[in-house]
Amino acid sequence: QVRLVESGGGSVQAGESLMLSCVASGSISSTMGMAWYRQAPGTERMLVARITTGGTTEYADSVEGRFTISTTDTKKRLFLQMNSLRSEDTGVYYCHVTFWGGLVEYWGQGTQVTVSS
Predict the structure, then answer these.
(1) How far apart are CA 116 and CA 11, in angstroms?
(2) Residues with Cβ < 8 Å from 95, sequence gap 6 or more?
(3) Least packed by Cβ within 10 Å: which of 41, 88, 91, 105?
C-alpha cells in the first residue's frame, strides 16, 4: 500500500509560478513510475508530466517548457515546478504512482490550482 499526499496548490495570477509537492509513504520503490495528472471541471483527468523508472521525463504538449517534474532519489517526494501559469492550467492536480507497468496504481487526494487571467 502506498499513501500519497499532495500540497502546494493555490490561487495565482497568470504568469506566476507554483511548486507542487507529493509525499509518498508506505511500500514505495525506486522502480515505481510517478506522474502528475490534472482534472479540470467537466473534463477527464489528463496526464501533465511523468517520470519513468529510468528517469526519463515526459510532458503534455501544453506544459512543455513551462513545467518541470522531478523526484528525490528515494522517490519519497515528487515535485512539479509550474512556471508561466495560464488560466487553462486550472484544475485539481493529482500525484500518481504505478508498479509493474501500471498493473498497480495509487492516487493522491489532489490539490487545487486556480490561475486567474
Answers:
(1) 8
(2) 4, 5, 6, 22, 24, 34, 35, 36, 78, 107, 108
(3) 41
**In this structure, what C-alpha cell is assigned to residue 107?**
492516487
Specify the DSSP element, H or E, that contains 63. Answer: none
Nine-digit cell string for 57? 521525463
Kindly report, residue by residue over 12-64, the tens digit of the pLDDT: 999 999 999 999 999 988 888 999 999 999 999 999 999 988 889 999 999 99
Q: Are 78 and 89 in contact (CB under 8 A)?
A: no
Burial bucket for residue 91 (CB in 10 Å: 0-12, 13-18, 19+): buried
**Distance of alpha carbon 49 from its chain centroid, rounded?**
6
